[in-house]
Design a protein that fits this description.
The complex is a heterodimer of chains A (220) and B (242).
Chain A (H helix, E strand, L loop, with lengths): L8 H37 L4 H16 L2 H16 L5 H27 L2 H9 L4 H31 L11 H11 L3 H30 L4
Chain B lengths: L1 E10 L2 E11 L4 E5 L6 H8 L7 E6 L2 E2 L7 H5 L2 E4 L11 H11 L5 H14 L15 H13 L5 E5 L7 H16 L4 E4 L3 H7 L2 E6 L2 E7 H6 L4 H11 L2
Parallel strand pairs in B: 3-8, 3-9, 6-7, 7-8
Antiparallel strand pairs in B: 1-2, 1-4, 4-5, 9-10
Helix pairs in contact in B: 3-4, 3-5, 4-5, 5-6
The chains are: A mainly alpha (220), B alpha/beta (242).
């Protein structure tokens, strides 16, 4: 058991920064793509067209029943097999996370849409707004506001889960810490550093969500 | 203007409307009353197609509501509706509530919609509240905004579904005042309401419903002075002497 030597943190910072930038990019892309696709999935699940609702339901159930790390690996390994050309680990990670998170955002948006009282839809229809217009201008803005805290909490979970891309060797923050740790033979110090960074970011995001929750609540 | 012919509706085996027929002529005010569960709210929601019906026909300005070929949104845009629970859009301020359908459905510009909205807010006495959100208004104020929102579409007729039932007693008057004024200006109105004072003042006819049937459809004076059916008599004595 050697002693801890935290001097490795200094020279590691440029690598950590690059890794963190990828982690953040992955989180943001997967969040925005996931919310958009998730909302479409939610609309499909609530659609009166039964095959469409079933298909979306099956997709969501499938994604929610497989460990994320398996989806990451599977996508990374299978896509080159199908398309004949390899996808980079980073691109593969972004696509996988968006597709996976969409299933979770879908369920959040579905309960958000259902949380809007039926009378609101009647009122929108009574004014002559069509189905799509009613959704876009009346139901979804309310659903989004009602669900904002849950959506952001899911995003914090997503931010932590991005560390799973180590499985396919994408260069996220954890991977950067791992590489530096190995090169300097200080793996424990580097793991402590990345844990601290994850904690600092997630904890401040949680506090921010709490603040936001107070501000965006619809006045009823 | 509104023709309802032999309309029936079932929820599974439960019949909620039984062969209902009535009409509202242009410029006429008709009040629909009856005990709760009598089907009056369902009937009025059938008029603009918010509820489907199983049999019969309803036409509004000659357009068949039940016809699958009818462009329902287009028809609804011409029929104003006011709900028991106001149903203002809580994420928009008062003026935005009034402007939304004018812009998205009628294709008016934001400025036109705002001008028309402000004029109507003036009319219901709420011009000063244009920038407020529905949650910041009292129930009576919200219902007046809801009436203004419906009027902003320049409707050919107005449907009121128990517009004062969710209000505290001291706020009922301000909403009824707006409705009376509207009636006196010649608006075609079909009102589900228990406000018999309002009915006496402005209604040409009263339709009394019970168990999904239209039991009576009589001129207002005749209905109050000499209701023909025992059910209407019992209903009136309950509602007038409490």
């Amino acid at each position: 058991m050697g002693e801890f030597d935290f001097s490795v943190w200094g020279p590691s910072l440029p690598f950590i920064r690059d890794g963190l930038l990828f982690t953040l990019r992955l989180t943001l892309v997967a969040m925005s793509g996931g919310i958009v696709i998730g909302t479409l999935l939610a609309l499909a699940r609530l659609s009166p067209i039964v095959p469409l609702a079933r298909l979306a339901g099956a997709y969501v159930d499938l994604m929610r029943s497989i460990p994320l790390v398996l989806v990451i690996l599977w996508f990374f390994l299978v896509i080159p097999y199908i398309t004949g050309s390899p996808v980079g680990a980073e691109t593969s990670a972004i696509i996988t996370f968006t597709a996976f998170e969409a299933a979770f955002y879908c369920e959040i948006m579905r309960s958000g849409i259902q949380s809007v009282p039926r009378g609101q839809l009647n009122a929108a229809h009574a004014l002559g707004l069509g189905r799509a217009q009613s959704m876009i201008h009346v139901i979804l803005p309310q659903a989004l506001r009602n669900m904002l805290p849950v959506l952001l909490t899911q995003t914090i979970v997503l931010f932590q889960d991005t560390s799973l891309v180590y499985a396919i060797g994408a260069k996220d923050m954890l991977k950067a810490a791992d590489v530096v740790g190995k090169n300097y033979n200080r793996p424990v110090e580097m793991i402590v550093l990345s844990a601290l960074i994850y904690f600092a970011i997630c904890f401040s995001l949680s506090l921010a969500v709490k603040q936001l929750q107070k501000r965006v609540a619809i006045i009823r | 203007m509104i023709e309802i012919r032999n309309v029936s509706k079932w929820y599974g085996h439960t019949q909620v409307l039984a062969n209902a027929s009535t009409h509202v002529a242009k410029g006429e005010v008709v009040v629909v009353c009856g005990p709760s569960g009598s089907g009056k709210s369902t009937l009025i929601k059938c008029v603009n197609g918010l509820e489907a019906f199983t049999q019969g026909t309803i036409t509004v300005d000659g357009i068949s509501v039940g016809d699958p070929k009818t462009d329902l949104p287009k028809l609804r845009a011409r029929v104003g509706m006011v709900f028991q629970h106001f149903e203002l859009f809580p994420h928009m301020n008062v003026l935005q509530n009034l402007a939304l359908a004018q812009v998205k459905v009628l294709g008016r510009s934001q400025e036109e919609a705002a001008t028309r909205g402000e004029a109507l807010l003036d009319r219901v006495g709420l011009r000063a509240h244009a920038a407020k959100f529905p949650g910041q208004l009292s129930g009576g104020q919200q219902q007046r905004v809801a009436i203004a929102r419906a009027l902003a579409m320049d409707p050919i007729c107005m449907l009121f579904d128990e517009p004062t039932s969710a209000l505290d007693p001291e706020m009922i008057g301000e909403v009824l005042d707006v409705m009376v004024e509207l009636a006196q200006e010649g608006m075609t109105m079909m009102c589900v309401t228990h406000e018999m004072g309002f009915a006496r003042r402005v209604a040409r006819r009263v339709v009394f419903m019970d168990h999904g049937e239209i039991v009576e459809d009589a001129p207002t004076g005749a209905f109050f002075d000499a209701p023909a059916s025992a059910r209407a008599k019992a209903f009136l004595s309950r509602i007038l002497h409490h």
